[in-house]
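Need tokens for this chain, all 299 residues.
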Amino acid sequence: MKGIILAGGSGTRLYPLTVVTSKQLLPVYDKPMIYYPLSALMLAGVRDILIITREEDEKAFRHLLGDGSQFGVHFSYVNQPKPEGIAQALMLGESFIGDDTCALILGDNIYYGSDFTDVLETARINTEQGVATVFGYYVSDPNRFGVVEFDKDFRVLSVEEKPEDPKSNYAITGLYFYPRGVTELVKSVSPSVRGEYEITTLNDMYLKQGNLKVSVLGRGFTWFDSGTMDSLMDAADFVRMIEQRQGVMVCAPEEIAFWQGWISEEELKQSADRYGNSSYGKHLKSVANGRFVSTARKK
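Here are the structure tokens for all 299 residues:
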């Protein structure tokens, strides 16, 4: 499976913070925003990842992330000339995806919850069977998002993009798993009245084929679309609370790589040394020294 992180866009909702930097490089408490969607892909077992950025931000992303070897993965980079919708990411990644399955995640989305690895594994299995999977989350303001409508048995009836009169309170979050052939199907997506290639249009195509599943993230999960000032602060407060109260690190890619067996103990220690005396570096040292047992350990 290939993975794509869409980390382009101008981030105008966060101006002036994003005038000189990418939104996905902003801190969410103690780590860059992009570490969170990266962690989600890694928990899904994805190791070949394309990062889509603005041309002016690519150098900074490469400085932060490199080629991915410190995380036990491989990064490729491609520029987004102009933000034209989420589905555009699949168009830009056509040659990268090839005839493989694909997981696409937005660079400002943050997920946290028990059994998340199992949820991701189920979605990955679905793609191998030719079925796309998206994730639904109950929100109070569904008109801001793509919305999924269910019947009484939670079978999917429809998906709509930012409807004025939402048919449910279940938003479709920014994580999408697609089967082989998605790069051909996405070519049938025409620009909307907003001039964007809407991911909801693609999802509706899978629904009409009978090949769309919606995995509902229930009360045991937390999801943030951290692209606004309030949601960015809410996400930072949440991460701070979890880490200080429970003493665990939320979304540490090197830790996930270690438990997955993608990097060695020595490589983990080298990463910890790079982060110095920060809380993040101290946490990686505690993992390397066997003082912390992670739920990210591969089963």
